Amino acid sequence: MARIVVGERVGKLGRMAIGCSASVFDSAKQKMLLTRRTDNGQWCVPGGYMEAGESMTEACSREVLEETGLVVRAKRLIGVYTTPNWLLEYDDGNKWQILVLHFEAEYVNGELKTSNETTEFGFFSLAEAKNLKMNELDYRRVVDGFAQRLDTIICDNFEFPVE
């Protein structure tokens, strides 16, 4: 399990990692797919780290498939998120400052199912998502996904509460 370390330029204590995540909407675009994580029980947008040798859209599609059973296609980049003041620290000693590329993705095929990374899934409105337990970065991506802006959001110094 990862814990969030917050502090002035704490990111320099880790290595960089690129994450890709997706806002997947229902057919009416009124609700967004969220999953509940097995490691901490919090809700999140489906996503994870890019692997060497894959493109950012391939990483997005692979992560959604692994976590939900759905095949999706990335349509547009919603936002880019990072901060030098936040570090993910894992039990195995790995420490990462992350840069997250968040996409709007459309359903292609597949059936929703849980995985070894997820215990539950559901489609939620923005009002419903506000009441779910999730970290600030996931909630920010939910809000930004629902905003349906035409421009890409560049967020390079967001703040996180210390947990």
**Rounded radius of gyration (Å):** 15 Å
Percent of residues in helices comes to 10-25%
Catalogue the unreliable spans: none
Question: Which word captures the global form?
Answer: globular
Number of strands: 10
CATH superfamily: Nucleoside Triphosphate Pyrophosphohydrolase
Residue-averaged pLDDT, rounded? 93
Count of DSSP helices? 3
CATH topology: Nucleoside Triphosphate Pyrophosphohydrolase
Helix and strand string, N-terminal first? EEEEEHEEEEHHE
Overall tally of domains: 1
CATH C-level class is: Alpha Beta
Question: N-to-C terminal Cα separation, in Å?
Answer: 14 Å
Largest sheet: 7 strands, mixed
Strand content: 35-45%
Can you walk me through this structure?
The protein is built from 3 helices and 10 strands, in the order βββββαββββααβ. The chain has one domain (2-155): Nucleoside Triphosphate Pyrophosphohydrolase (Alpha-Beta Complex). The protein is 18% helix and 43% strand. The chain is globular and about 40 Å long. The strands form 2 sheets. Strands 1, 2, 5, 6, 7, 8 and 10 form a 7-stranded mixed sheet that branches. The protein has a 3-stranded antiparallel sheet with strand order 4-3-9. The relative contact order is 0.28. With 163 residues, it is an alpha+beta fold. The two termini are 14 Å apart. The mean pLDDT is 93.
